[in-house]
């Protein structure tokens, strides 16, 4: 059996616990696990929840604008929207101004779901054990990192 040994100091950059990507990945897994029962109660998947969050903010977005907001390509987003439309949460329609553009609108059932989802953020805050200002600051830092990595910062 190989013996455990400590890496030399110059190998610290390759330690798993020193990897930002792993911290973000494992935190994402934990967050998804937290959301699952909350969203199961609403009969939503996490990507469907994200779509609803955006549409509750701004109803009637084009599919392309929705994809930009969620960092999803149309090949991923279109089947998701079709399933959500089939379940009665939203409707898609061609734009009157531009037939090539498809707009997405929340259905009455989708609007009613918002009232049931309103408690989810508080559940997440409670599970985190962090004060809201700390969570808001962390969210801002992660968004800034994302924007830098995608080249979308000013």
UniProtKB/TrEMBL annotation:
Q: Which InterPro entries match?
A: HTH_MarR-typ, MarR/SlyA-like, Transc_reg_Sar_Rot_HTH, WH-like_DNA-bd_sf, WH_DNA-bd_sf
Q: Which residues form the HTH marR-type domain?
A: 17-144
**Gene3D superfamilies per the record?**
Winged helix-like DNA-binding domain superfamily/Winged helix DNA-binding domain (1.10.10.10)
Subcellular location field: Cytoplasm
Tell me the superkingdom of the source: Bacteria
Keywords of the record:
Cytoplasm, DNA-binding, Transcription, Transcription regulation
- The protein here is known as MarR family transcriptional regulator
This chain's source organism reads Rhodoferax potami
Q: What is the lineage of its organism?
A: Bacteria, Pseudomonadati, Pseudomonadota, Betaproteobacteria, Burkholderiales
């Amino acid at each position: 059996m190989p013996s455990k040994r400590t890496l030399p100091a110059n190998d610290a950059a390759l330690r798993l616990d020193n990897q930002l990507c792993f911290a973000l990945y494992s935190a994402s897994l934990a967050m998804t696990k937290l959301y699952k029962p909350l969203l199961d109660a609403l009969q939503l998947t996490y990507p469907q929840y994200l779509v609803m969050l955006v549409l509750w903010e701004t109803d009637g977005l084009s599919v392309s604008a929705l994809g930009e907001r969620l960092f999803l390509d149309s090949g991923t987003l279109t089947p998701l929207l079709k399933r959500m439309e089939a379940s009665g949460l939203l409707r898609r329609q061609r734009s009157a101004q531009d037939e090539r553009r498809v707009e997405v609108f929340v259905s009455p059932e989708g609007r009613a779901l918002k009232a049931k989802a309103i408690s989810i953020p508080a559940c997440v805050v409670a599970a985190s054990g962090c004060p809201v200002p700390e969570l808001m600051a962390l969210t801002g830092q992660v968004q800034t990192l994302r924007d830098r990595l995608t080249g979308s910062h000013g």
